[in-house]
What does this fold into?
Amino acid sequence: MDKVAIVILNWNGSEMLHEYLPSVVNTSGDAAVYVADNASTDNSLEVVRNEFPKVRIITLDQNYGFAEGYNRALSQIEAEYFVLLNSDVETTEGWLEPLVAHMDSHPDTAACQPKILSMTNRKEFEYAGAAGGFIDKFGYPFCRGRLFETIESDCGQYDDETEVLWATGACLFTRARIYNNVGGLDSRFFAHCEEIDYCWRLHHYGYRVMCIPKSKVYHLGGGTLKKTNPRKTFLNFRNNLTMLYKNLPDKELRKAMRWRWFLDYVAATKMLILDHNVSDCRAVLQGRKAFKQWRHDFDTDRNTILKASKLNHQVGRNNFSLLWQYYIKARKKYSELPIG
It folds into this structure.
């Protein structure tokens, strides 16, 4: 059994593999490196076989998306730790050691992430994860180093190890045993918000999720779906509402959903009238409709999670509105938020 298995889920990403896989191979020591291929139609497998003969390949028979693709790939691997790593991530020398050291010495930590910096501007945090993730009371995610579209420069201000609600799926380090025991990523999400849902579940079961900034990687971002893609908008809204439905306690769920109904329609109206973006407006409405149609498919999950929950205070969930803090209070940095 491997100590660490680094698993890169790939779909038609031959250029990404050619560009960024060398850093993973060269900086990851004795860790096993896998490419799990989601039935690519490009020359991805040829690139891996010809350029990276030591990298192990797992082939899937169709594109299962991010969540189910990882579940199927990881079910074929025996390791103490899994690292779910995006194909557009450049790792740095020694990046694994702080993550392994923390997990080895903290058995109550089930998952962690490194500091995620931007590939295109290496002095800035990267959107998808930055220095650890949180949500506000209505489910809007944010990070140390990123609030909505405002990205901070990395000046060492978030270099302390800290407990977070979620670790980014761009580079998610997790205990294999726990991943399997709690059911892994929710495959119904397909992609987006599945890592937040997974990490929130870990908290419910009494585990911790951490950011370990001594470890550092660079992420390009948007390698599969661009931020402007309506499909991404649809998945984000549908899955975020589903995540809330699965994990919010009864006393909070109804109020949060009422507010989200209002806020989601405000967002759709803004997209249509101010941004002249008909596609994204339609995607928001379709996302809400899809959630309404399938939410009761998650009743069993919700009952199981909340019955088993050991949470008194949910670390990383904050009792304020990020929209209010950001747009009304003009607080654009994590350090300016009323955390705690």
